[in-house]
Amino acid sequence: MSLQAIKFHSSPEVSLSILNQLQVPYQSKYLDVDSIAPIPEFTQFSGYDAIKGMYTRGAPAIMLVGCFSIVVELNRVINGVDSKKFGYDITSITQFKIRLLQRIDELISSRPTAVNLTNGCNEIKKIINSFQNEDLKQLYKKILDFSENLYKEDYQSNIDIGNHGLKYIIDILSKENYNGPFSVMTICNTGSLATSGHGTALGIIRHLNQFLSKDKSKYNFYFDHAYPCETRPYNQGSRLTAYELQYENIPFTLITDNMASFLIDNLNRKKNHTNQNILSTLSSNSPIRFIIVGSDRIVQNGDLANKIGTFQLSLIAKQYNEIKFIGAAPTTTIDYSTKSGEDIKIEERPKDELTMVLGAKMNGNVFATDSTTGDVVLERVRMAPLNIQVWNPSFDVTPHANIDCIVTEKDYLVKDDAGNFHL
Ligand code: MRU
C-alpha cells in the first residue's frame, strides 16, 4: 500500500481529506477540506489553504486537491448549506456560474508555477461554461466525474511513466553494453505524496528497484542506489523523499544539494580521484548514470520548471557524458501555450522558509509527543540573523539543451538531431 496524500469519497458522504505534509515525516494526520477558497468565519480549511500553505504539494497532487475542493464546495451548496455565505445566487444559473468561476480563479492563484492545477481547473471551467441546464445537481455530477477520472488517470499515468522511464534506462544501458551496478540522483519529492500515488521521477526509481535491482535484473546491469538531495529550503528531499524511500525499502543515501558535484565526481571518476577515504564511507560506490527529476511545468520547447536546484543538477550532468538527465511528468504538466522557459512565472515563497526551520522536538532518540494530544511536538527555529535580505524563488528552469529525455505516460521522448523536443 503506497502512501496516500489525498483521500476523496463521493459516497455515502462527500469528503476530502489531505495528509498534512507539514508534519511528515514526524506523524501522519489528515485534515478535512471544506471549500474552494477561504471565507472568513465560514470555512474551516479550503483547497486554497491546503495548497498555498504547502499542506499538499507536488504538481499533480495540488491539481487533484484543487479539483476535489470544487466538488466539495458544490456538494455543500446543492445540499442546503448557506450558499449566500459562499457568495452564490442559486436562483440564477448565470450568476451562479460567474461566482463559481471567480472562486476557481482564486484557487488557481494559490501556486503559480505548477501548471497542472491551472490545466485541471481550466477543464472544469470548460464544463461550467458549456453547461446550459438549470439543474445544479447535473453540473455537480459532471465535475465530480471529471475529478474522479482525473485522479484515476493520474495514478495510471504514474505507472506508465515508471514503465517508460525504466525502458529508457534499459535502452541506454543495453546500447552501450553496460555491465554492473548503477545509481541515480533525484531532487525534491515526486513520489506518492506529490501525486495520486506511485509518483513520477520517484515512480521511475520505484520501478528500477522493483524490476532492475540486483536479484531481479535480467540484464548485465542493475539498479543499486538512489541519492535524494535534501532540497533546500523546504527540505522536501529529506523530509518526504527520504521517508518514501525508507517506506519502500529502496537503498538510498541522503545528501545535501551542495554535495551533488563532489559525490558524482568521486563516484564517476574513480580512477583519477584522490578521495578514497570519502568513498569508503559510502554504502554504495556505483556510478551515477541518471539524474531523474519531476516537473511543475514543461513548455513547448521542452524547457522544464522544477524545484529550485534542478537546474544546477542539469549543469552537473552535462559535465559527464555518461549521465543522462531525465524529466518525468504526466502530460497534465505540459503547458502547450508557453513557448519557452523564459515565460514561466516563478513562484517566490516567504522569506522565513530560508531563515527558519520547522522540526520535531526529540525525546532521546524518538520524537517528543504532547502528553494530552499525543501529537509530535514541532518547533520552529531561526537559523539566520534578524532583518536580512532573503531571496526565495521556489523553482528554476532547466533549458531543454540540458535535458536528455522527457518521460510522460505516453512514451519517452528524446531530442531530434537538431536538439529539439517534439512534445
Ligand atoms: O514546492 P513543491 O513541493 O510543490 O514542489 C514540487 C516539485 O518541484 C516536484 O518536483 C514537482 O511538482 C513534480 S511532483 C510529481
TrEMBL record:
GO biological process per UniProt: L-methionine salvage from methylthioadenosine
GO MF terms held by the record: S-methyl-5-thioribose-1-phosphate isomerase activity
Keyword Acetylation: no
Record has Amino-acid biosynthesis as a keyword: yes
Classification via InterPro entries: IF-2B-related, IF-M1Pi, IF_2B-like_C, Initiation_fac_2B_a/b/d, M1Pi_N, NagB/RpiA_transferase-like
Transmembrane feature ranges: none
Alphabetical UniProt keywords: Amino-acid biosynthesis, Isomerase, Methionine biosynthesis
Domain of life: Eukaryota
Family: Belongs to the eIF-2B alpha/beta/delta subunits family.
Official protein name in the record: S-methyl-5-thioribose-1-phosphate isomerase
Organism in which the protein naturally occurs: Pichia californica
GN (gene name): MRI1
